[in-house]
Design brief:
- By secondary structure, this protein is α+β, with helices and mostly antiparallel strands.
- The protein folds into two domains: 207 residues, Rossmann fold (3-Layer(aba) Sandwich); 227 residues, Jelly Rolls (Sandwich), CATH 2.60.120.
- Helices cover 29% and strands 26% of the residues.
- The chain is built from 13 helices and 22 strands.
- The strands form four sheets. Strands 8, 10, 11, 13, 18, 19, 20 and 22 form an eight-stranded antiparallel β-sheet that branches. Strands 9-12-21-14-15-16-17 form a seven-stranded antiparallel β-sheet.
- Strand 18 and strand 19 form a beta hairpin.
- Helix 2 packs across helix 9, helix 3 packs parallel to helix 5 and helix 5 runs parallel beside helix 6.
- The termini are far apart.
Length: 470
């Protein structure tokens, strides 16, 4: 009895040992780095041989996957492609079929018969997938691969340099010719591994065998990695501040550090090209004082009937202003409105195009040109305001779409503000961080003629730069 138990346990151990087959590391799944593009290698045992080396070559640049099996012939590819692709996004797919297509088979589709004889061209064997069928299968496979949206690279079949088993020397040539016809017609990139390996085949391939030495697989991997790297999507750019973006893409067209004294209280008293649209309303009151390199604005809003409006020539389509400012805390509810004006454009009240508004509780970006300062919209809106009636839903929705507001809490510290337009987008940044952005048609106005401040209370300005990008 004891012998039977021992024998049984030994049999179980043998079965368990046989069942535990080590997984080829090249076929094992990998975990993605979500920051990197995804690459899929499809191919036979030659590609299995170079998979790990490709991963090493592209480490830190791409997640390199492959099906957990030999890709085999185009017949296998047609059968299993959907499973290999799964429902994941692929950025690059590098693929090859050929070696398993050109090999010879017996009538039962095996390459080795019961007597241990390999099928060949001379003993009644047939090629697994004849060249004409191979070409047709490739066309279908390429059509399915293109639907993934990935960049596609086809690798030509490497040389069969000697007769071996069911392989015939140089049998790959008509298959590669067929593949080139398909890829050229479909505009698919070709990684010509055949041309790469042929001149050095004796140094790379196992003698008399279509497979490669470890050195040969590394050489193939470098070629595969090179072709993949050439079409990888560009790595995401490190975020840059809007001030840096303006410096990198634009031309500085104006700079004022305010290191001077003002001359009186008039419209041009600030000097260096600044103009006050409200100074002459109350010439007896100083609303702009240059003090120790700081432009200190204190608006006589009540007396002038308007917030202090100070502007300077700008003249760009895309560009912006970088302003160092602070609220000194001298008045309750200090705020700052700054933006762009073009008084030469008809149909807009006072030429107001767009503004960023720093209020006591929020930052707002607003398109005035196609919103509330558009004369037709302004007149329509005023009609309802005069009658103290609620705005119609369509008008209210239009005006709402022209602006965006985000919460914000001011303080009395110095801050760097960037207000810029890029196409139909207006962005406002504070201390290198985008606080608000919005898209609206008026932001794309072709000429921001003036850069303007509107200050209803008090604000200090230490430095202003105006940049032109376009």
């Amino acid at each position: 009895m004891r012998r039977l138990v021992v024998s049984f346990l030994a049999s179980v151990a043998t079965l368990v040992a046989a069942a535990v087959v080590p997984v080829d590391p090249a076929l094992a799944p990998i975990s993605d780095d979500p920051r990197l593009p995804r690459v899929l290698l499809i191919g036979d045992s030659v590609s299995i041989g170079y998979t790990l080396a490709v991963r090493r070559e592209l480490a830190g640049a791409a997640n390199v996957h492959r099906p957990p099996a030999n890709g085999g012939s185009t017949k296998i590819g047609l059968r299993d492609l959907d499973r290999w692709l799964g429902d994941q996004r692929w950025d690059v797919i590098h693929f090859n079929f050929g070696l398993h297509d050109l090999g010879y088979r017996w009538p039962d589709d095996s390459n080795l018969n019961a007597q241990g004889v390999y099928a060949t061209a001379d003993n009644g064997g047939h090629q697994n997938v004849p060249p004409a069928d191979y070409e047709r299968n490739l066309r279908e496979l390429v059509g399915r691969l293109k639907r993934t949206g990935a960049k596609l690279i086809f690798a030509t079949t490497t040389p069969v340099s000697a007769d071996l088993h069911s392989y015939v020397k140089a049998a790959e040539l008509p298959y590669n010719a067929a593949a080139r016809r398909v890829m050229q017609a479909e505009q698919i990139a070709i990684n010509d591994l055949w041309a790469f390996t042929t001149p050095q085949i004796d140094q790379l391939q196992i003698p008399g065998n279509p497979h490669f030495t470890a050195k040969g697989s590394v050489a193939l991997a470098r070629e595969v990695a090179r072709s993949v790297r050439a079409v990888l999507p560009a790595p995401p750019r490190a975020p840059v501040s809007d001030a840096t973006w303006l410096q990198a893409n634009g031309v500085l067209i104006f700079h004022d550090a305010f290191e001077r004294e003002e001359t009186g209280n008039g419209a041009k008293a600030i000097g260096n090209g600044w103009n006050s649209a409200t100074a002459d309303r109350v010439p007896q009151l100083k609303m702009a004082d240059l003090d120790a390199g700081i432009l200190k604005i204190s608006s006589a809003t009540k007396e002038a009937g308007h917030a202090a409006h100070i502007h300077h020539e700008a003249g760009f389509t895309d560009g912006g202003a970088v302003v160092r400012f602070r609220f000194p805390g001298l008045n309750k509810g200090e705020s700052l409105q700054l933006g762009f004006v073009d008084r030469d454009t008809p149909g807009i009240h006072a030429g107001h195009l767009c503004y960023g508004i720093l209020a006591p509780t929020s930052v707002t970006l607003i398109d005035h040109k196609t919103g509330v300062m558009n004369l037709e919209i302004r007149q329509r809106r005023q009609t309802y305001l005069d009658r103290k009636e609620k705005l119609p839903a369509d008008l209210e929705a239009l005006l709402k779409a022209k602006q965006v507001s985000v919460p914000w809490k001011p303080d009395t510290e110095w801050h760097e503000l960037v207000l810029l337009t890029e196409g139909d987008e207006l962005r406002l940044s504070l201390d290198g961080k985008v606080v608000a952005r919005h898209r609206s048609a008026g932001f794309a106005h072709p000429l921001k003629r003036w850069f303007s401040f509107l200050v209803p209370s008090t604000v200090w300005i230490d430095d202003v730069k105006i940049w032109k990008v376009k």
